Amino acid sequence: MPEQKLKTSIAILGCGDVGSTLAYTLILNPVCSEVILVDPKTALLEAQVRDLSDATYRGNTGTRVRAGTHKDAGQADIVVITAGAKQKPGESRLSLLSRNLHILSSIFSAMQPISPHTILLLVANPVDILTYFARKLSGLPESQVIGTGTSLDSARLRGILATKADVSPSSIMAYVLGEHGDSQFIAWSSATIGVTPLSMALPSSTDPTFRAEIASHTRGAAGSIIAAKGCTAYGIGNMAASICKYIMYDQLTVRPLSFYQPELGCCLSMPAIIGRKGITRVMPIELDEREKRELEDCANGLRAVIEGAEKELEADQELAKALEKDKGA
Ligand SMILES: NC(=O)c1ccc[n+]([C@@H]2O[C@H](COP(=O)([O-])OP(=O)(O)OC[C@H]3O[C@@H](n4cnc5c(N)ncnc54)[C@H](O)[C@@H]3O)[C@@H](O)[C@H]2O)c1
């Protein structure tokens, strides 16, 4: 009989800026009994565990933090992958692909066997491409492999529209969809404030110059923060922690998330319901003609990148096999 599971756990692979901020957020807003940190930089890992543990002793959280292995992570309720290189100032997310795909591939070899109930949450960039490959490498059902996608971009969109409309961000329903990257687009035609169409509630929002300014803000927000402080961590840490909460509490919340789109042949962000089983339902969204074209362009771009990366991954796996054979000879 399988051993009874007594603890709920979230494993965070990579405890640099994003991973440690996520861990801290999960301590302050507990949703599981333990947070397991995994990182090959052992001195950093131990220091993060000690520092984060210090934040648990005041007694206002039941969540404990410990260091673990990739194998431990494979048995967690949620595995959040922040492991990998990050953008240097001025660098695009796609330029990280080669380095982060190698790391992803090694992570999945080290994590096996992965619990069939684990939800994978990809944060490392380029997040849509890595989500696509995580789905292939993990062997988990598509519904359990999710990327944070444009959830952060959509939060930034809410923030700026809230300022323009003089209303709380929580009253804005507007999504950035597609790639978490340069080809992302705003679904203007479905945006509302409360239940009022954005075009009625904020007439200036139909002006092309206004739209271009907002789109440039959401697309470029990360770049300007990275240029000034070297990383973005609080926004994504908070967003990833919220997604963990929706999963652990089976909240069945609608969010724009990156997941596999069979009709487009790639992972990109669309609205979906998320709970303990991962994506439980895709929420259809009406797009106007322009938005449909933007979605198509976005998918074409991502598919082209996937094709190149697929070859690179195959060569990588062949090399690993040959090295393994050499070791055995
Ligand atoms: N999706 C988003 O919206 C979003 C937002 C911000 C950052 N990011 C991405 O998140 C990633 C992490 O950013 P960061 O600022 O924390 O970087 P960082 O360099 O501070 O941390 C990355 C950590 O990953 C670790 N790592 C490397 N290989 C590993 C492995 N095999 N297993 C476990 N850990 C491993 C490194 O040792 C390092 O500590 C980057 O790819 C960045 O672009 C995504």
TrEMBL record:
Q: Which UniProt keyword terms apply here?
A: Coiled coil, NAD, Oxidoreductase
Q: Where is the signal peptide?
A: none
Residues covered by the Lactate/malate dehydrogenase N-terminal domain: 10-147
Per UniProt, residues of the Lactate/malate dehydrogenase C-terminal domain are 150-311
Locate the residues binding NAD(+). Answer: 14-19, 39, 100, 123-125
Can you tell me which residues the record assigns to a coiled coil?
292-326
Question: PROSITE patterns from the xrefs?
Answer: L_LDH
Q: In which pathway does it act?
A: Fermentation; pyruvate fermentation to lactate; (S)-lactate from pyruvate: step 1/1
GO BP annotation list: lactate metabolic process
UniProt-recorded Gene Ontology molecular function terms: L-lactate dehydrogenase (NAD+) activity
Please give the catalytic activity noted in the UniProt record. Answer: (S)-lactate + NAD(+) = pyruvate + NADH + H(+)
Q: Name one Pfam family in it.
A: Ldh_1_C
- Record's GO cellular component terms: cytoplasm
Q: Which sites are catalytic?
A: 180
Organism superkingdom: Eukaryota
Q: What is its EC number?
A: 1.1.1.27
The family this protein is said to belong to: Belongs to the LDH/MDH superfamily. LDH family.
The name on file for this protein is: L-lactate dehydrogenase
Instruction: Look up and give the organism this protein is from.
Output: Lojkania enalia
